[in-house]
Write a structure and sequence with these properties.
Layout (H helix, E strand, L loop, with lengths): L7 H23 L5 H8 L3 H7 L3 H26 L3 H15 L2 H7 L7 H23 L9 H12 L6 H19 L15 H5 L7
Helix pairs in contact: 1-2, 1-4, 1-6, 4-5, 4-6, 4-7, 5-7, 5-9, 6-8
Amino acid sequence: MTTAPMSGRKAQAARNDELILTAARAVFTADPGAPIAAVAERAGVGISALYRRYPSKEALLQKLCGDGLQLYIAVAEQAMRDHDDPWEEFAGYMRGIVDADTNSLTIKLAGTFHPTQELHQHAARASELATRLHTRAVEAGVLRPDITPADLALIFEQLASVKLGDEQRTGELRHRFLALMLDSLRQPPAHRPLPGRAPDDLELSVRWSPVG
């Protein structure tokens, strides 16, 4: 069954919504206190178009975090479907969450808005899946038993804080340090070659140069 194409007006509204959400993520993960007008400016849409879709900054933040939670859930569920090997299931979940970068929202937006009942439900489902993946790996004897799901949540936040160079370089470095963490989490510990190149002094020092 094919889906009928959207009308011109609906298609434009969908494009605007995507632009708004992409801009909102960039704006608010850089500065949670930024005004909603900064989102409209970055998205290239009028403030009235933004308010028609999201009547307040609170509503926009709720939408961003709701989408992030649903993405987390999808990644976790996919990892459980993709692998029969307990370690690869767990490692695939970890890699998928790092790629999804949902924890950048957690780091910046936690405590900046009031969660809805729907968000609480999504959060409960995400927590349930994280616990199941953790328990399966521990019971299979491939994950060290002194690690908890809360430990893993903070590991994700540590990796999300790695930002160096452009998006591609940031992703490369996050996976390098994830590989290091996975080797230490595995039972028994592994010692595989790390992916990507190590950060160099220039990459670290350039961060101190004023922008603009």
